Each structure stands twice: as C-alpha cells, then as structure tokens.
Amino acid sequence: MASIRQIEANRSNAKRSTGPKTAPGKARSSQNALRHGLARSAIGDAAEIENLAVAIARGLGHPVTPDAAMALARSKLALLRLRSLRQAMMAALLVGQLRQS
C-alpha cells in the first residue's frame, strides 16, 4: 500500500505530466498514431480489396456474403501490412546493431 507521502508525490507528478497545453502541441500530438501508419483507415486500394474478396468468396467453397468477404479481405491486407512493418522494423534494428558493433 502506498504511503501518504507517495500518494502526494504521485499527485504532484501527475499535475506536471498531463500532455500538451498549447494548440500547436495538441495538434502535433494528435497525429502521433498516424505517424507509423497503423491507424490508417485505408488498407490498400479498392480494386485490390475487391479482387481479394472475390478470391476469398470463390475459394471458401460455400456461400459467403459480399460484406463478409470484403471484411475478411480488409483484415487480411491489414495483417499483411502489419507483418511487413514488423519485418522492416526488425531489419532496421539489426542494421543499427551491426553498425554499432
């Protein structure tokens, strides 16, 4: 359990770390999630999604609604993009480590 002194210290620190206060700081921080592209709503172009949805619907072997096929296609493309980003990040880390050696 935290002591009274620790609780007061936490409250004091929290008052100083509440995020940006100015309009430019708020505008800049609001874009943080978009910097790496993970929060991007568009995952590929419409034709790519449509083609993948058609392939998914045909390949399943049983009837599937167009909405479900499109949702699965968007999810698959998002997963592929995440894997690609992860691979690029790992490669960049390895290159950075090799340079330091």
State the main characteristics.
elongated, 101 residues, mainly alpha
Mean pLDDT: 83
Compressed to H and E, one letter per element, the order equals: HHHHH
| Parts with pLDDT < 50 across at least 5 consecutive residues | none
Annotation field: number of helices = 5
Largest sheet: none
User: Could you tell me the strand content as a percent range?
Assistant: under 5%
The tally of beta strands, per DSSP, is 0
Shape: elongated
CA gyration radius, whole angstroms: 23 Å
Helix content: over 70%
- CA-to-CA gap between the ends? 45 Å
- Category by helix and strand content: mainly alpha
List strands and helices in order, with pairings:
Layout: H1 4-16, H2 23-30, H3 32-35, H4 46-59, H5 66-100
Task: Provide a descriptive summary of the structure in words.
- The chain is mainly α and 101 residues long.
- The mean pLDDT is 83.
- The protein contains 5 helices and no strands.
